[in-house]
């Protein structure tokens, strides 16, 4: 009764709509009668349709011809290799590859079962099936009517399935289907049916993380692909439509039922007799796992970074990188990488976990200052996740005092100061907001030479000096070093590492390459070159360096930063390995809202020699009252850094610095007075300005001379 009322109401509504649309349809009908034949609109519709079809066909043909189909077999038959700085194999990448076997190593039983099940006209058609296209068109129309944005089914040929897996996404759309057809024709133009079948069977997925028929044979039956029996081959073929649901290890009953269907199809195509099919259906499903997976993803954080750089810098996709058989030549130093990883695996190098078990996190990166090439990287502690968060390249944390050499001391040297210039070391307020930087433990000496202020990481002298040279000079210097401060960072807090957006260890290491490389800033990267499976070079990266300060300033900065590690009162004391000399800086940032004056959010150490720059960060991913470090001086991680550098420095050329510790220089030399010393001694301001101007001119002349020398000699 209710249904009748509903139908009556529906009919009434349709009649109402019909009456409302009737005048509209009358106008449209009269218009068509009047103009359709007069202007031969049928012909124009046909011309428009054919033109659109021609343009689309031309585009798809061009795409197929430029898809590097000729490289497909080589790409599928070998993994992507990662080569180190010495052009030696470091490992390989693949996500959809097993052990490749040629077709003559694959049982004919498998070939017959797959062709009978997936594409029985495989040897007769040319890449696509007219019937399949018809079915796809019907399904397309049905899905459009039902407002679905995809094609279901479609009866793709083996060649189309190969193309879909190798070149295209799995998204089922009309556009992808059209591309699939044109690419399939191109594949048929280049390869024989035997090659296509071999590529398909080696590139197919068989569940449980197993790719390729050889590994599937080992995983489910403990034999080689060449030894698969007819019942086993039928199970292998049956898995292609649903690898998870039909694999015999997890679902033996489903696998048996599907096998029996495949056996029937093999009998229909004459590959076996009906009596043989009946006999094979009685065979029990017996599995045996003899599959051994070798993890060739040897250095996970480094390999992750290589993939990310290939995607972000060179425009490749993850699928291409993992499955196209490239050789990727990198700057990886396997000894340095192993040493860094061993340091991170030793929990004794790090503070205890938080009370709830949360690990103190850390990350490190080692860079060649001459090329900018990353030789080693570790992005965190604990279990690695494929292409997960890499703290060495992705964190954004305030760098603390590691920014002082960049934002304060380098521009000061470039503007008339010297390494032993006296700086004011007093608690002092600046500006209308009364900015009042304090030293650790509120200890002040009144004044001290610049090299001591840096080595002891004093805050008050650094801010005083930035105020003297001008915040703009410090801000511009940070930009020159390749960092990207926010406009809001243009204030005195910049002297203490106040960067709104923060930086990563990789960015910090890249900035410090300028100190280690005589004033030349190197662009950092992981990849030197990428070669495709056919031997064509598709990426060739030439190291890029840029002079941002004179050799003299760089050398003076190094002499000052040597004191950070080899002076008794330096903040890096104890972090320098025995028998080696390193320069660099420590840094830390305060943790707010913890209730502890010693609570620390970030700890940094960066150290370098002429051969390598190593930057290390330590802290919690999320800093709060229950998760923070202690001891804001940064000394707590010095032992870890010493262990790290002890494993890296022996692998370098062990080039010596061509300068001495600034403290030693100060004892041996009488440095001329400078502008601010003269002010303290009562010299007139006019004389002071002349003195500073002269120093600046000398500095610029020195920079020009260094640039000219480099242009002539290439050094």
UniProtKB/TrEMBL annotation:
Gene3D superfamilies assigned to the protein according to its UniProt record, in alphabetical order: 6.20.370.110, Biosynthetic peptidoglycan transglycosylase-like, DD-peptidase/beta-lactamase superfamily
Region (Disordered): 668-715
Entry's transmembrane regions: 44-62
Domain spans labelled Glycosyl transferase family: 93-266
GO cellular component terms attached to this protein's record: outer membrane-bounded periplasmic space
Penicillin-binding protein transpeptidase domain boundaries: 364-611
Keywords: Carboxypeptidase, Cell membrane, Cell shape, Cell wall biogenesis/degradation, Glycosyltransferase, Hydrolase, Membrane, Multifunctional enzyme, Peptidoglycan synthesis, Protease, Transferase, Transmembrane, Transmembrane helix
Bias (Polar residues): 668-696
NCBIfam families: PBP_1a_fam
Alphabetical list of PANTHER family matching this protein: BINDING PROTEIN TRANSPEPTIDASE, PUTATIVE-RELATED, PENICILLIN-BINDING PROTEIN 2A
Name of the protein this chain belongs to: Uncharacterized protein
């Amino acid at each position: 009764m209710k249904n009748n009322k509903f139908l009556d109401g529906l009919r009434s509504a349709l009649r109402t709509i019909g009456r409302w649309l009737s005048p509209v349809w009358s106008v449209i009908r009269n218009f068509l009668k009047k103009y359709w034949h007069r202007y031969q609109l049928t012909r124009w519709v046909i011309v428009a349709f054919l033109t659109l079809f021609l343009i689309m066909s031309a585009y798809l043909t061009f795409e197929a011809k430029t898809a590097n189909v000729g490289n497909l077999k080589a790409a599928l038959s070998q993994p992507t290799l990662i080569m180190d700085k010495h052009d030696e194999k470091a490992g390989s990448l693949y996500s959809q590859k097993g052990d490749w076997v040629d077709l003559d190593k694959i049982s004919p039983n498998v070939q017959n079962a797959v062709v009978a099940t997936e594409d029985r006209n495989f040897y007769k058609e040319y890449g696509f099936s007219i019937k399949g296209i018809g079915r796809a068109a019907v399904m397309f129309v049905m899905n459009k009517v039902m407002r679905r944005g995809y094609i279901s089914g479609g009866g793709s040929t083996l060649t189309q399935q190969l193309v879909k897996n190798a070149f295209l996404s799995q998204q089922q759309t009309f556009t992808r289907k059209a591309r699939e057809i044109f690419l399939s024709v191109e594949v048929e133009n280049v390869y024989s049916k035997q090659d296509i079948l071999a590529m398909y069977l080696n590139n197919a997925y068989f569940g449980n993380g197993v790719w390729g028929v050889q590994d599937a044979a080992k995983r489910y039956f403990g034999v080689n692909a060449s030894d698969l029996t007819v019942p086993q081959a039928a199970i292998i073929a049956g898995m292609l439509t649903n690898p998870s649901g039909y694999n015999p290890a997890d679902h033996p009953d489903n696998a048996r039922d599907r096998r029996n269907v495949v056996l029937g199809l093999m009998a229909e195509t004459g590959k076996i007799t009906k009596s043989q099919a009946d006999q094979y259906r009685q065979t029990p499903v017996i599995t045996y796992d003899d599959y051994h997976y070798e993890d060739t993803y040897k250095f996970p954080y480094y390999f992750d970074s290589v993939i990310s750089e290939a995607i972000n810098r060179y425009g490749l996709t993850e699928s291409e990188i993992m499955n196209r058989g490239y050789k990727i030549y990198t700057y990886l130093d396997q000894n340095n990488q192993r040493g860094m990883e061993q340091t991170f695996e030793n929990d004794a190098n790090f503070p205890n976990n938080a009370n709830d078990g949360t690990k103190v996190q850390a990350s490190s990166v080692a860079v060649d200052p001459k090329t900018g090439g990353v030789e080693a990287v570790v992005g965190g502690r604990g279990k690695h996740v494929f292409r997960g968060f890499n703290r060495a390249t992705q964190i954004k944390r305030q760098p603390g005092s590691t920014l002082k050499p960049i934002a304060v001391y380098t521009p000061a040297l470039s503007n008339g100061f010297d390494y032993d210039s006296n700086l004011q070391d007093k608690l002092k307020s600046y500006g209308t907001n009364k900015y009042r930087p304090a030293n650790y433990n509120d200890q002040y000496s009144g004044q001290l030479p610049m090299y001591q202020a840096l080595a002891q990481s004093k805050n008050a002298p650094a801010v005083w000096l930035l105020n003297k040279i001008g915040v703009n000079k410090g801000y511009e210097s940070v930009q020159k070093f390749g960092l990207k401060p926010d406009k809001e960072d243009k204030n005195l807090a910049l002297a203490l590492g106040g960067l709104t957006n923060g930086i990563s260890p990789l960015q910090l290491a890249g900035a410090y390459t300028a100190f280690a490389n005589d004033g030349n800033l190197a662009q950092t990267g992981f990849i030197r070159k990428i070669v495709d499976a056919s031997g064509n070079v598709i990426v060739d990266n030439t190291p890029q360096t840029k002079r941002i300060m004179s050799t003299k300033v760089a050398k003076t900065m190094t002499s000052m930063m040597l004191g950070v590690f080899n002076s008794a009162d330096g903040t890096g004391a104890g972090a320098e390995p025995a028998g080696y000399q390193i320069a660099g800086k420590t840094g830390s940032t305060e943790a707010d809202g913890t209730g502890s004056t010693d609570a620390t959010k970030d700890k940094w150490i960066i150290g370098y020699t002429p051969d390598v720059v190593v930057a290390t960060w330590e802290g919690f991913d999320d800093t709060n009252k229950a998760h923070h470090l202690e001891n804001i001086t940064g000394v707590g991680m010095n032992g870890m850094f010493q262990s790290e550098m002890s494993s890296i420095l022996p692998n370098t050329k062990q080039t010596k610095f061509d300068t001495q510790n600034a403290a030693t220089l100060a004892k041996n030399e009488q440095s001329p007075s400078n502008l601010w010393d003269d002010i303290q001694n009562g010299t007139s301001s006019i004389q002071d300005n002349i003195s500073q101007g002269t120093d600046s001119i000398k500095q610029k002349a020195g920079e020009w001379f260094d640039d000219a020398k480099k242009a002539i000699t290439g050094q």
